[in-house]
Amino acid sequence: MEVSAAISLSRTLSLLSPIAPTSSSIPFLPPVSLSRRCHLRHRRYTLSRSFCLPPAVPFSSSSTQNEDEEAELVEIEDSELEEEYIEDDDSNSIDVESLEREAELVVREFSDSLSRQLTIEEERSSPKEAQVKEKRRNNTSKNIPDHLLPKVAIVGRPNVGKSALFNRLVGGKKAIVVDEPGVTRDRLYGRAFWGNYEFVVVDTGGVLTISKSQADLMEELAISTTIGMEGIPLATREAAVARMPSMIEKQATVAVEESSVIIFLVDGQAGLNAADVEIADWLRKHYSDKCIILAVNKCESPRKGISQASEFWSLGFDPLPVSALSGTGTGELLDLLCSGIKKVEEPEYLEEENYVPAIAIVGRPNVGKSSILNALVGEDRTIVSPVSGTTRDAIDTEFTGSDGQKFRLIDTAGIRRKAAVASSGSIPEALSVNQALRAIRRSDVVALVIEAMACITEQDCKIAERIEKEGKGCLIVVNKWDTIPNKNQETTVFYEEDVRRKVRSLSWAPIVYSTAIAGHSVEKIIVAAAAVEKERSRRLTTAILNQVVREAVAFKAPPRTRGGKRGRVYYSTQAAIRPPTFVFFVNDAKLFSETYRRYMEKQLRTSAGFAGTPIRLLWRSRRKMEKSDGKDGPTKMQENFKDREKKLAVPA
């Protein structure tokens, strides 16, 4: 009697007690922490509450069915927990050093692939005239700042080959070369060397000192008063065109005054011109104290070159036949040039300069890019005119901020739509757009300038996509802010919301409002650019990064597939900066949808910042981590648990 009562009591207690896992149903799992146990109990309690089971159920067929369902749920839960423990085991048994090396290889492969893709796109969009392989020389330049080197200016009338000779001396395609007059307008600087001498060559626009009619000036300088100038009155257009020659001549005058050697270039095929005589008189009258070299260009044949150059003896200088296209006579030209400059040795006390970030100023035509550059440097570095397409070359200018930090500012030409550029048939404009895109590639931070009244256009969105694809830091500059009427405190808020909604690819970019023509708030552009560069160069520690990733996964786990598979993150690391690039080692990259990847990027930005710079997340598929010491040997996780048990053991 007592035995049967004891048996019935044990059965009743077994029904009321929770189901205990046995060694036959669930494999051995390593011990878990107290927080994980609490989470497990809460999860089981939630599952049991979902079936609304009372604390005590009579022994019947329905209760048996409920017990089976509950046991099945617990078995599913235990299988999921087993996968999590296996993942923890893998994370403790991985080789961090090998993963770090693999992450660097992943970033290098991605960068090479992206560079090849962008190069192919650039070659497709560039005109055939520009598809010439650039010849590069070995860089043997010394660590001497540009302002300490002597300068050599190239002057002459339009279309005599000044830009071609400039490219020949600096050893690259830095200046736009087209068989059209008036292509170069601003001063363009480039370092060159010959033997032990190093100097800076300055390319200038064509000097026009002879009074000409309005039509002749427009034809000589290739100026258009229709493209991009529809909203400007006709009188303003004509006045801008009339001022263009004097502005180009002013730029050339500045280059001559700051140079110690002047290369006076003439056209040997066209012969002596009245403009050549006026330029020679101007140089002889005002700059006779400088070394002036008369170079007769386009003398490809050495025999004919002598006869072609003899015509220019009347200018009062010794003519030297050269060919910028083939390089004939450039050696003698460089010898004469070096005889007129002083050899600059590298100063011993000069400290190695830190990294100088480059800021490219890009945007559509006539949005005020050149005005921003002039307002920042405090001088008329580039020509500012309502004439669309005034800036042709990418102009590099050194700039030092108020805090002493150095920057390299790059002014670029306006970027119009590909269809508009192709329909115009203008080769200089196509080359200018290519140079602007190259300026984005060689910059660190891009200032995307938009016009306040026009706000965001389709072309602005395309430029923004290119900036994001290049991985450059960016800030949006809303120029001509004074043209917005009836502004109040809410105007900026509504305007920013409109910009964010239209330019989703740059939702992380800061916005700066300025009026460059009056110099208002232009200093905020440099402050914002410096902050963006710091964020772009920032590196997260692996511990903080993995903590952010774990919290993001705990808050929102990767979704399961129809087959029941779920993505798991084994390890994450920041493998590169500029831009910040993170590599995630996962079980299968295909299990992480594009939506979840955007979610992870958003969580990284929310937790770690990175304002003003794009971040790249690279997902690397990896098989289940193998045990370290074979099948029979203990795993790293088991060794860790043994160490923990030794530390927690209380001495007797």
TrEMBL record:
Residues annotated as region Disordered?
Answer: 120-144, 622-652
Work out whether the entry's keyword set contains GTP-binding: yes
- GO terms assigned for molecular function: GTP binding
- Give the stretches traversing the membrane: none
- Which residue ranges have biased composition labelled Basic and acidic residues? 120-133, 626-652
User: Per the UniProt entry, what are the Gene Ontology biological process annotations, in alphabetical order?
Assistant: ribosome biogenesis
The EngA-type G domain is annotated at 357-537
| UniProt keyword Repeat present | yes
List the record's Gene Ontology CC terms alphabetically.
chloroplast
- Pfam annotation, one family: MMR_HSR1
Which keywords annotate this record? GTP-binding, Nucleotide-binding, Repeat, Ribosome biogenesis
Matching entries from HAMAP family are given as: GTPase_Der (MF_00195)
Q: Give the family this protein belongs to, as stated in its UniProt record.
A: Belongs to the TRAFAC class TrmE-Era-EngA-EngB-Septin-like GTPase superfamily. EngA (Der) GTPase family.
Protein name, as recorded: GTPase Der
